[in-house]
Every structure is written in structure tokens, then in C-alpha cells.
Amino acid sequence: MAGDIHTTSGTKFSISTTAVASTTDTLTEYEALTWTEIEEVEDIGNIGDVSNEVTGAAIGDGRVRKAKGARNAGTMNVICFHDPLGAGQQALIDAEATNDNYAFKIELPDAPPPTGTPTFQYFRGLVMSKELRLGTNDNIMRRAFKIGVNSEVTEDPATVGALTARGGEGGTTTATTQPKERAEATAR
After folding, report:
1. Which fold has domain 12-157?
2. 81-90, 141-150, 165-174: which range is least confident on average?
3. Are strands 102-107 and 64-72 parallel, antiparallel or unpaired?
């Protein structure tokens, strides 16, 4: 429903199991990858393009002119509770030891009820750090990972599901749900 708001609770964050080419950019390419979910994420940080501000001052009127420069999708500061047995955190640690780009997937908890699919966001990036934050007696140990985003964020938006009916055995009808696009394709 329009106007519904969502919290971050339930968001899933994953890393590709292998490094990716610098040309990996399409939804089809991202969906073909194998993913490892990163466990115990406390804060996923920010992501999204910000244009550099380019300025120049005109002598005649003393006004600064502004233009948009290169876009930067940012550096994500991902904080996790330390999990020494977590495959996802180990994948981040291993990726930090390389100069390779990995693909990342964010699954948002925003699927429209009752049968919709959630929003997925995909991007390429470098794992730039793997700090272990120990703190004081009463602190939970955490891992801080910085991910330098090296691509545009590719989004597969949430979709509304549709009900379809199929004939069953003995004259019964079974209702199933499927994403709207699949239901439209089936109806053609």
C-alpha cells in the first residue's frame, strides 16, 4: 500500500562467493551469482549516488556557478556483532585481503502484503577494512567493515503479487500466489 513505511529490521545483506568483473552491472548478471549472507549485522550504513559539486566564480557578477561532477555511490560502514564462525563475516575478511571487487546484495523487508516480492539492491565494491572493535568490559565485540562502492546501485523494486487459480484433481480449484509479472506472463 502507498504510504506504508518499513524499518530496517529483517534486512538481509550478502556478498558474492567469488570476485566479479568490473563490468558486472545488470540485474541478470547479479541474479546469476551465488551469495553468502552476512550474519549478525547491526548497522548496514548508507549507499547511493552523490554528485561531486563543481564550482567556478564568474568575474562579471561575482556569483559562483555550480555543476554536477562525477557520481560517487559512497563507502558503506557495515557493523556486525563479532561472529568468528560466521561464513559471511569470514567472506568479508577474505575479500579485504584482496584487491578484487565483490558483488553485494541487500534484500529489503518491504514486500507488499500478502504475496509481493521485496526490493533487492545490487552493487560492486571493495572491502576496504575489517576492524575488530573490542571496547570496554560491557561492550559487545563488533566487526567494522568499510565497503567502497564501485558501481551504480542496481535495484529490483518490490512487486505486488497476484492470485491465480489452477484446476486441481477431482474438479477442485487451488489458488496460488505468484509475483505480478509472472501472473501477467501466464495470462498471455
Report:
1. Factor Xa Inhibitor (4.10.410)
2. 165-174
3. unpaired
